[in-house]
Amino acid sequence: MATVNSFETASGRAAAAGAVDLLIGISGMIGVSGAARDEEFRARSAKCLQSLALGLPGLRIAVACPAASGAESFADSEFLTYEFSDGAAALPWLAAPAAYRSIAKLAESRQARACVMLSADLGAFDARSILDLARPLMEARTLSLPIYPTGKYEGLLNCGVLYPFARALFGKQVRYPLPLDFGIGGGMIARLAAEGSRQQAAVVWPSIEGSLGDASMAQVYVGARHVAHSEGIDLSTVLGSLAGSLFEEAEKTAAVWQRVRASQALPVFGTPEATIGESEAVDVRPLIESFHLGWRNLQEVWGLVLPPVTLLELKRLSRLPAEQFRLPDGVWARVVYDFALAHRLRTISRNHLLGALTPLYLAWVASYAAEVRDVDAAAAELRIERLASAFEEAKPYFVSRWRWPDRFNP
């Protein structure tokens, strides 16, 4: 493996007491317990760090974990702990921000040149993923973001809402705007570590922080796969949490994104993983039935949020047979934008508002699943790119509604 070592340009810095070159931060409780699991974790940790030492010779590497999280497994390497309490947060993006700030503070205090944040599920805790995320930081980037390997039916909330919405607003083609793993360097370390900053929000969106901080960003193909633990968590809760947080970001940053025109591709490092084996086709009938149920029961709510032309499109959609059920990209983009505006205006209770979005999201999923049923993952990815372009094309509509909401009231 070739070593990229621009960190060595600061060779004189090594004399600084306690300084490290790379800090690896695990952003949450690992949950290691029991002798057997502890031994397995210790062996995995040792293997990963030994490989890193070979891949980054001469660099000082430290690891940071929450106290009382099985951290003693790192006894053979430099290990740092930070205080962390995730409370009862069942969703990882709600627990992680406090960990990000603590890890960034450690990185700042240890004069780290780069910091790689990893999810507590350790899906990316391997030398290759860490090296891949660190490499752009060694080449003067200040934010590196992953591109995960996914099948065509995976990560649809990201594909259908988070990615196209964030891309259109902030002008950066970041495939995963809310990743579980990412790397930061330079000013981004200080930005996340700052007390009293906007990062005290319930969710930290690294790509948005990078856009607002004018970070030098890059994306990296990583092989990490994270297993979602959704037991006891329904779709409306997840959709409401993520879409609601993104809509809040839109409200806070309106002065910025209204000036953004089009989007920019980012440098991409590495090579994509082999295509994941095709999963079984999605049965779209329950999804369409959920939309029909919403059409029957939520028309009054949707009428408060959506303009008449969109309601007519939804009426047309409700009358289509399953085999012809298609939600046009432009209509879906305007629906998401209209819900973002209603979230800002508090047209109705935000919980009720985001709950009313769920049947419409399922309609988009049904439409997308039907369209990509007979194509491979690469073609499905192109389909997502067309959707993202549709969000960009519809952005002037959103800007107009944002500035003059009364003009479009039904």
Largest sheet: 8 strands, mixed
Q: Can you tell me the CATH superfamily of the largest domain?
A: Spore Coat Polysaccharide Biosynthesis Protein SpsA, Chain A
* Rg from alpha-carbon coordinates: 22 Å
Quantity of strands, as a count = 8
| Portion in beta strands | 5-15%
Number of domains: 2
Average pLDDT rating: 86
DSSP summary: helix tally: 14
CATH architecture term of the largest domain: Alpha-Beta Complex
**Which structural class is indicated by helix and strand composition?**
alpha/beta
> Strand order, biggest sheet?
3-2-1-4-6-5-7-8
Q: End-to-end span in angstroms?
A: 61 Å
Principal-axis shape: globular
Topology as H/E string? EHEEHEHEHEHHEHHEHHHHHH
Low-confidence stretches: 1-5, 8-15, 71-76
State the name of the first-level CATH class of the largest domain: Alpha Beta
Percent helix: 40-55%
What is the CATH topology classification name of the largest domain?
A: Spore Coat Polysaccharide Biosynthesis Protein SpsA, Chain A
